[in-house]
What we know:
Distance between the termini: 37 Å
Number of strands: 2
Helix content: over 70%
Low-confidence stretches: none
Structural class: mainly alpha
Number of domains: 1
Strand content: under 5%
Strand order of the largest sheet: 1-2
Shape: globular
Radius of gyration: 20 Å
CATH class: Mainly Alpha
Amino acid sequence: xxxxxxxxxxxxxxxxxxxxxxxxxxxxxxxxxxxxxxxxxxxxxxxxxxxxxxxxxxxxxxxxxxxxxxxxxxxxxxxxxxxxxxxxxxxxxxxxxxxxxxxxxxxxxxxxxxxxxxxxxxxxxxxxxxxxxxxxxxxxxxxxxxxxxxxxxxxxxxxxxxxxxxxxxxxxxxxxxxxxxxxxxxxxxxxxxxxxxxxxxxxxxxxxxxxxxxxxxxxxxxxxxxxxxxxxxxxxxxxxxxxxxxxxxxxxxxxxxxxxxxxxxxxxxxxxxxxxxxxxxxxxxxxxxxxxxxxxxxxxxxxxxxxxxxxxxxxxxxxxxxxxxxxxx
Length: 329
C-alpha cells in the first residue's frame, strides 16, 4: 500500500522523537563547564525550550539519504548550540528583557557574563564539530558563523534607517535562512549526497528559512505578547524595518510615512501607537503581502526537493514549509 501524500506534525515528531531526545541530552552535556556561570547560563537557555527546528532539519536531511551514524546527533546539538549563542548575543544587542516568555539571560546574569557565555558556546560548538573529523563540515560551520556575525553588524548599521527589500532579504538570509540552509547541507554531507543533491538540500533550507523569518516578522507585528513571549512590535521598537513595513512605506502618504519614521527614530511607541501602525499596514495590504511572499518561499522549498525519492522522510520535509507559514508563534 502506498504511503499517504501528507504527514502531520505529530507524525514528524514520532519519526524524530528518539533522535531529538538524544540531541537534547547531548546539548545538556556539551554546555557544562567548570566555570559555574557558563553552566548556569547554558542550562537556563536550554530550559527555555524552542522548536528545535534546526536540528530536526539536519536529522531529516541525513535520513533522506539513509544516514544512520551518530554524527547527526552530535551535529544536531552543534547547530542548536550555535543558535542559542546567537540568541544570547541578539538579546544583549537588542537590550531585550524577555525571551520565550521568561526574563532574557542578560537580565539575570548581566551583559558581560552573557557575552562571554555566548562566545564560549560558539567555541564549544566547534569543539564538538571537530570530533567528526570532516573538513567540509568545519568549512561550512565557519562560513555560517561569519555570515551570521556580518548579518548582525549590518543590521546594527541599518537600525532606525529605511532599507530596501533587497537589503531586508539579505539580512534575513544571514540572520536565519543561512543556518537553516547549513543544517540541510550538513545532513547531506553526512549522508554522502552528490553535489547536486547537496545544493538542492541547501536550497530547501534557505527557502524554508526565508519563509520562517518573514512569518516571524509578521507575527512580531500581529501576535499577542502572551503568545510571542516578548513585547509586540519589538522589531519596530528596536529600529528594525521588516517586509510589511517596507511594503507600506512604498505606498503610503507622507503623513503615514512620518508615523512609521517617528517610531523608528524614537525607538518607542510614545507619540504613535501600535494600533496606528497596524492601521497603515492594513490599509495597503502589507501584512498579507509579506505572508504571500513567505508562502512563495515555502513553495520554492518544496520544489527544491522534488527529485528525491518518495518516503516518510520526504513527506516530513514537504510538511515543514506548511508548518512554518501556518504557525502562530
